[in-house]
Structures are given as structure tokens and as C-alpha cells.
Design goal:
This is Inosose dehydratase. By secondary structure, the chain is of the alpha/beta class. The chain contains eleven helices and eleven strands. α3 packs parallel to α4 and α8 runs antiparallel to α9.
Length: 300
């Protein structure tokens, strides 16, 4: 399978080095080490982590000397819990910063009632169920954000995510059907689809024409079983090693994923975002493993 004739670039997420939700994971690692090791592993792009400088010239210099660029940064929406204006104003600031770095896509997720950051909330039992009114608020807000992104020639891509109320395919379908397909795109994440019990290949097939950004990670089936049996939270699952890089886990059908991509016109970034405890899983080692795997499978 050859993806080398597609306009696809490969990036890495800093969460593999330092976890924004659990700063104790990789707390000792600098953003310089993170960027250097991404480049060393053969990646050309990065998303933004909490340790990255907020000062544009400083960050730009750190990127430029390593031949790296910023391709996206997570944005948290609070349409369900705060006045809409608050999220939209914060988004404009976020958009402008990313635009000045040359990014074209902004990954967004609603987190107003999310349990993803609650250490002891059981992932499958405590996940929020959104009301009709909450769905309306999110959809309306996203359409407005999509327009704001277009002002700068950018797009928003919605990131379904465990614990947020939009994690299953049914929930994601509902939101996507309520939003304007020309304003709100999809962020395809193999790991969150699989964790939620969905078939990642089917999700990609369904949304390939609306996907603007991609996150690659695999899932370890034995840890997923533990999450269910022991009623673990999202953070506990991450600490236990639920996620790993492509080429290491055992639940994602990568050949299926690559086939859908190969048959599509997708162009943009694929980002390795397999958050693990860097004290257990050396980030550079796993970045190299992922890079090698993707190259062997796709020629990228």
C-alpha cells in the first residue's frame, strides 16, 4: 500500500513526552527535548503542549532550528456550562496564535461536563449523557467557530473523546448531523474510536470526506479489559497503558485504516498521539517504532 503519492505529513503529539492532564507524567522533560526527539524520529510536525512557549518568536525559533512546524493544538469548548461568548472569545485568541504559526486546522472538543480529567470517575459508568439542549448548544457554537476559523483560511475538526459525552459513534453521528459540513469537520482518532468500542476503520470510512486531521494510536486489549473489569477512569487507563503507538497495540486494524486512506483524497496531517507514562515507555523509542511502522506499511 502506497500513501507516498498523497499529500500527507506526519507529526507527533507532545503528550507522548509530557502529559497535560497528568503533569507528573514526564514532568521532568523539557519542550526542547520533546521537539528534538520528534525530529530525530523523523517527524516534521507537532501539536502544542502546555510546556511549549506561549511567546511566538521563542516557539518559532525552537521549531525552525529543528525543521518542525505546528499543525494543530487542542481547544476546549465549554458550550454546555459557560456563556457561548466565553468559548468564542477564547477560540479567536487560540485561532490567531495557531494562524501565526502556519497551522491550518484546529482540533476542538466540548469538555463542559467531561469526566476525562477526573481521576476516580469510572470511564464507562460515569461518562456523561448529553441532553438535547446541550447538543443544540454545542452544534450552534461549533458552527460559529467554524465561521471564525474560515476568516483566517482555517478549519475546525471535532475530536470525539472518551468521557466528554461525545465518545460513541452514535453520539458523534448526532453531532455531525447537527452541524454544517462546510464549517465543522471531523478529527479522526483511531484510539478513542477503539476505546469507545467502535470499529475505527468503519468510523474512518463513514467520515473520510469530512476528516481534516488524524490522530493515530493503538489500544492494548488486556488493559481495555482491565478498565471495564476494575471500573478505571480515563486517566487511570492512560497510566495503566491503554494507549500505545501504531505497530505496538493489538486492536486497530491498520491495514484497513491505510486502505481507506489510500482510496481517499485525504491530505493533511497524521499525528502520533499515544499518551503513555514516559518513565515506562521511552517516548523516543516509541516515536521511532511508530515512524518505522508507518513507513513500512505505507511508504510515507
Amino acid at each position: 500500500m502506497n500513501l507516498s503519492n498523497h499529500n500527507i505529513k506526519l507529526g507527533c503529539a507532545p503528550i507522548n513526552w509530557t502529559n497535560d492532564d497528568m503533569p507528573e507524567l514526564g514532568g521532568e522533560l523539557t519542550y526542547q527535548q520533546c521537539l528534538s526527539e520528534m525530529a530525530l524520529a523523523g517527524f516534521t510536525g507537532s501539536e502544542i503542549g502546555n510546556k511549549y512557549p506561549k511567546d511566538l518568536p521563542t516557539l518559532k525559533k525552537a521549531l525552525d532550528i529543528r525543521g518542525m512546524q505546528i499543525c494543530n493544538a487542542w481547544f476546549s469548548c465549554f458550550f454546555t456550562t459557560k456563556p457561548e461568548e466565553e468559548t468564542l472569545n477564547a477560540f479567536i485568541e487560540h485561532r490567531d496564535f495557531l494562524h501565526s504559526l502556519g497551522a491550518k486546522v484546529i482540533g476542538v472538543a466540548e469538555v463542559g461536563v467531561s469526566i476525562q480529567g477526573v481521576m476516580d470517575a469510572p470511564m464507562f459508568d460515569a461518562a456523561p449523557i448529553l441532553t438535547d439542549e446541550q447538543f443544540e448548544k454545542i452544534a450552534n457554537g461549533l458552527n460559529k467557530m467554524g465561521k471564525l476559523a474560515k476568516e483566517k483560511g482555517m478549519d475546525i475538526a471535532y475530536h470525539y473523546h472518551m468521557g466528554t459525552g461525545i465518545q460513541s459513534l452514535e453520539e458523534f453521528d448526532r453531532l455531525m448531523n447537527m452541524t454544517d459540513p462546510d464549517l465543522v469537520y471531523a478529527l479522526f482518532d483511531t484510539g478513542h474510536a477503539t476505546f469507545a468500542g467502535e470499529n475505527a476503520v468503519e468510523v474512518l470510512k463513514k467520515y473520510i470526506d469530512r476528516v481534516k486531521h488524524i490522530h493515530f494510536k493503538d489500544v492494548r486489549s488486556d488493559i481495555l479489559q482491565r478498565v471495564k473489569d476494575e471500573k478505571l477512569s480515563f486517566l487511570q487507563a492512560v497510566k495503566a497503558g491503554i494507549y500505545t503507538v501504531p505497530g505496538d497495540g493489538d486492536l486497530v486494524d491498520w491495514d484497513g485504516v491505510f486502505t481507506v486512506l489510500s482510496d481517499s483524497n485525504y491530505e493533511g496531517w497524521i499525528v502520533i498521539e499515544a499518551e503513555q507514562d514516559p518513565g515506562i515507555a521511552d517516548p523516543l523509542e516509541y516515536a521511532i517504532k511508530a515512524r518505522k511502522f508507518i513507513n513500512e506499511k505505507t511508504g510515507l
